[in-house]
Amino acid sequence: KEEINFTADAGNAYEVTIENSMQGMLCFASFEAVLEDYTIGRTYTIFPSESGQVSQMDEKVKITMTIPETLQAEGRTFRMISVTEGGKPVVLEDLDSNAETITFETNTYYAYALIYRDAAKGKVKTR
């Protein structure tokens, strides 16, 4: 259980809670459906703090999480995957350029995976 360091944007309409969490097989199947050449680094549960365990809110929030030191590496890129209540995976791109953090916006809640790809794996073939 690593400590989760995160900040929420001051303009967010509500606060969120983030916890380390081992996800079940159905969540992992949803993560893997959009994983591509990324690797799952950590899994979390994220909920709106005041609203209880709801799966969606009207407004998005912006969250910046510190990447665990054990996952930080030169040339590594990160994304988050959120799984909706119906099991649909949503890929959230990193909105910042800081290699030690990931910033994303979301209004869907529950299961999340922090995923990463090393630069050598992400080369695009050209014709």
Which terms summarize this structure?
5-stranded antiparallel beta sheet; 3-stranded antiparallel beta sheet; globular; 127 residues
Q: Can you count the beta strands?
A: 8
Distance between the termini: 46 Å
- Strand percentage lies at 35-45%
Give helix % range.
under 10%
Task: Supply the number of helical segments.
Answer: 1
The major pleated sheet works out as: 5 strands, antiparallel
Shape: globular
Q: How does this model look, in words?
A:
This protein is mostly beta strands. Helix content is 7%, strand content 45%. It contains 1 helix and 8 strands, in the order ββαββββββ. The protein has a 5-stranded antiparallel beta sheet. A hairpin with a 5-residue loop joins strand 5 (77-83) and strand 6. The chain is globular.
Structure in a nutshell:
This protein is mostly beta strands and 127 residues long.
Write the layout of secondary structure elements.
Elements (H helix, E strand, L loop, with lengths): L5 E3 L7 E5 L4 H9 L5 E10 L7 E11 L10 E7 L5 E5 L7 E8 L1 E8 L10
